[in-house]
Amino acid sequence: MDKDTKSRKVYTKRNSISFVVASLFSFGIFFVLPMIIKMAKRDNWESSLPPITTNLFPVGLVNILFVLWLGAWIYSKKIVYDENIPYSRVFNVNNFAIIFIIEVNLFFATALMNVLSVWGILSIFILTLMMIYVTFSSKNKSLQSLLFGYTFVNNKMDSFFKKLVENCIKFGGVIVLIYLLCKIFSSSKGEIKTDFMGITIATVSVIVMNIIVVIGEAYLLFPYLLYGYYKEKYSEEYRLYEGKTQLEWYGEKYFDKHIKGTSLEES
Predict the structure, then answer these.
(1) Beta carbons of 110 and 55 less than 8 angstroms apart
(2) What residue intervals traverse the membrane (predicted)?
(3) How far apart are CA 253 and CA 256, in angstroms?
């Protein structure tokens, strides 16, 4: 894990151009989706979807999410030193991925609310939450078994959620198709018939995207975040274990600012 992150320059090189560009892109993308919602609420906006009546994605919420992400980014910059640069950047990438997926889900929930109804949107969110629980529970048990040799037996709740999520993934497409057909053909004559294929693709795309992000978080980012957390929490223990000096471990800038001349400096 250490070799993997340290072999990638985007994680280890300070102020790399690619990371700066990615950060600037991150700043801008927070406000793109709510602007589209704002434009779609105008009377002259042409769309096959019914007019937006409920906005689940106001600019105020975007500002809150942005401030949270920015605060976490500033915090990570303050505590960064040479040895934990890779995990600091994985931490920021993870935070951006979480907030971005929240924004995308709220965007589609707002756009499709009048087509799928409140119950349809809630069903997608509940399925996503159950999938998060099952995936991270499974990964957590796998890591504990690997690290500590624990043996786990699934309880009734774990087994129920796991089976439910597996069946939803298997038959989710069919369920969505049937629901959309019922919703469209049962609508009153005065309502606008929306583009069936477009709505189906959009809905399935959101579900698939949620599945990909949850699996990616659990199996690609979570192990690195956990390792980085313990490496930060027990920094000196890791340093002594790897046989490095404080200057080698923390870097000259961090060492001079936080360690040199204090009780933390080795004699």
Answers:
(1) yes
(2) 16-37, 57-75, 96-113, 119-136, 164-186, 198-222
(3) 5
Tens-digit pLDDT profile for residues 26-71:
666 677 777 777 776 665 555 556 667 777 888 788 888 888 888 8
Instruction: Tokens for 142, please give them.
Output: 């796998």
**Spatial distance between the Cα atoms of 38 and 49, rounded to a whole number of angstroms:** 15
263 class by beta-carbon count within 10 Å (0-12 exposed, 13-18 middle, 19+ buried): exposed
What long-range pairs does 218-224 form, CB within 8 A, spacing at least 24?
A: 218/135, 218/136, 218/138, 218/139, 219/139, 221/90, 221/93, 221/94, 221/97, 222/136, 222/139, 223/1, 223/139, 223/143, 224/1, 224/5, 224/86, 224/87, 224/90
Round to whole Å and give the CA distance between 172 and 178: 10
Q: Please state the domain extents for the chain.
A: 2-235
Tell me the C-alpha to C-alpha distance, in Å, between residue 34 and each of 27, 66, 122, 193: 14, 12, 20, 25
The pair of structure tokens assigned to 240 is 């002594």
State the chain's maximal CA–CA distance in angstroms: 84
Question: Tokens for 120?
Answer: 């349809």
d(CA 258, CA 262): 8
Computed from CA positions of residues 147, 151, 157, 160, in that sequence, does the dihedral angle turn out positive or negative?
positive
Cα-Cα-Cα-Cα dihedral of 1, 220, 130, 198, to 10°?
180
What lies within 8 Å, CB to CB, of 126 at 6+ separation is none
Phi and psi dihedrals of 55, rounded to 5? -100, 105
